[in-house]
Amino acid sequence: MQIGVESSKAVDQRRIFVIDEDEVTRAALQFMLHDEIETHELASLEEAYAKGTDWLVPDLLLVGIGIVAAKGLPVLAEIAKRFPDARILVVTGTEDEELALEALKSGAHGALIKPLRLEDVRAKVDTILGRPGGAPLVQIGGLTL
């Protein structure tokens, strides 16, 4: 099922790994993104490392906050070392805001905040990947920075 798909995005040969222990979150993100970008859902970092070979390297990793909580903030540096050209978004709820902020300070490039909405997820992914149609990264007092 294709929802508002832009064909130019669907053929740009980028790849996302959705890594989250929560099966529902993984499935929702995969569903929201797979029409416009090659999306793989994985339950653990170990699966991502095994899948992320020379020919299947992600451009973006969506990492569940539960993985960061379980493995600690240094896991972000580990991910960056393993996939040096990839960007990292932390997927979190408002209840884990403090840890998400620490993740941003420790190397994550942004966050997706639950509840996840199709338009918001696609806009954030576009922004992080530098694709047309991205959302502004920061809005303060009506100004986009």
From TrEMBL:
Q: Which UniProt keywords apply?
A: Phosphoprotein
Does the keyword Phosphoprotein belong to this entry? Answer: yes
Could you give a single Gene Ontology term from the biological process aspect?
phosphorelay signal transduction system
InterPro entries found in the cross-reference section: Bact_response_regulator (IPR050595), CheY-like_superfamily (IPR011006), Sig_transdc_resp-reg_receiver (IPR001789)
Q: Name one Pfam family in it.
A: Response_reg
Where does the sequence pass through the membrane?
A: none
SMART domains on file: REC (SM00448)
The segment(s) forming the Response regulatory domain are: 15-129
Q: What is this protein called?
A: Response regulator
